[in-house]
Amino acid sequence: MKKILVSTALLAGVLSYAGGFRVSLQGVKQLAMAHTSAHAEDASVAFFNPAGMSFIPSRLSIVAGGFGASNKVTFQNLNTLQSTETDNPMGTPIYAAITYKPIEKLSVGFSFSTPFGSTIEWPNDWEGKEMVQRLELKSFYFQPMVSYKFNDWLAFGASYIYARGSVNWDKAVTQFGGQLNLDSKASGHGYGFGFYFRPDPKLDVSVAYRSPVDMKAKDGTATFKFPSASIYPLLGLDASGKDGFTATLPLVEEYTVGLTYKVTPKWLVSADFNYHGWSRYTQLTLDFAKAPVGNQADPTVSVSPKNFRNSKTFRLGTQYAFTDMIYGRLGAYYDESPYSDENFIPETPSFNTYVVTGGVGFKLKQFGVDVAGGYAMPQARNVNNKNLGFYGQAKATAFYLGLGLSYNPF
After folding, report:
1. ∠ Cα 219 223 229 (to 5°)
2. Radius of gyration for the alpha carbons in the chain, expressed in angstroms and rounded
3. Are 146 and 111 in contact (CB under 8 A)?
């Protein structure tokens, strides 16, 4: 019997369209300044660099926020000129953090964020339906952390990362005129650490590292649906069409260097450089319990080449204090795609992307309100994936809106 080929991208988010499945939406204030990291005004610095907690002016700081993210991908077959668009619902990433100084030199904190996740939805009958029809991802990062301030200008911080996620994925199995749904939860562990420097009252320097996290799906459920009941025994399945599977998705390490310089008491400029180690994502293996989805040597194992490569992001942002209560912010950044045109995949469409950002912040004594937005300009790609037999041109658009709240009582 011929084997069913299953191309997989388990747990891959699609919100950012740039650096793989990394979603740069972990702080509203940060997004307004191109998502730069060397800002230690409140607990929003915790996700970016735990060492920054030591330089927060308030002993207690609490922040929370969320985003609305709208995006669309268009694929055109250049031979037939047929064009297909996604119909994605709006993504809603959120974050929250709290920091506290029990003693002068020691800070502790906790960060909650959703750095990976969204939904991509292609038409059921489009030409890439065997790769993906609909993919929904949810992910959550929980990070307890601690920071120690050695002196007035240097602090070191570290965090533990516990990650949980889920995926629900539909695709066609045209060999038998059927459909496959993959549903699973996954978890993983990692860590982060960083140094935060303030060698001069005008200059902040943030150097941070976030480790890889291997998201392991151990008890996934694969549900096959076919028009004829006679097909299920051929796959070693009963009439329910259900099978189990396991998989591991490597979320990669991230290196960040950030600078913020106060040009005047009212005007500051920030810059970041991010390096993402995507080259460890060379392939994805899906191990089924029964279904013959692979080759004759490993009939229940499906291996999908990914061939990602390391990528970089360059960020530049600024803030100006119009008054002690009102702040204006602007930014721009360039985010590289971690794979070439020859490895383009519609499950996680990724583009070299320019993004412009902006926002306004308001301080009302102990409370702060921040509003931000971003407009992404992904660069069109000529798709030439021979492994999947997938050719054409892909384009995308995306924009983000965010609202953040902060509370710094003492």
Report:
1. 140
2. 23
3. no
Residues 6+ apart with CB under 8 A from 69: 15, 25, 90, 91, 92, 93, 118, 398, 399, 400, 401
Least confident of 32-41, 106-115, 183-192, 282-291: 282-291
63, 332, 369, 410 from 365: Cα distances, Å: 15, 30, 11, 11
Contact 284, 301 (CB under 8 A): no
pLDDT for res 307 = 87
Q: Say which amino acid occupies 34.
A: A
Among 104-108, 175-179, 215-219, 382-386, which range has the highest average pLDDT? 104-108
Give the whole-angstrom CA distance, residue 144 versus residue 92.
23
Sign, CA dihedral 180-252-344-297, equals negative
Mean pLDDT, residues 193-198: 98
Element of type H or E holding 316: strand 311-321
Mean pLDDT of the chain: 90
Residue found by looking up tokens 């150097």 in the block? 207
For residue 124, give every residue at least 6 positions away whose Cβ sits within 8 Å of its Cβ, in sequence order, or none.
133, 172
Strands, E assignment, 77-133: 83-85, 94-100, 106-113, 118-121
CA-CA distance, 260 to 303, in Å (whole number)? 44
Tokens found for residue 363: 């301080």
What pLDDT score does 21 carry? 58
Rounded to two decimals, the pTM is 0.91
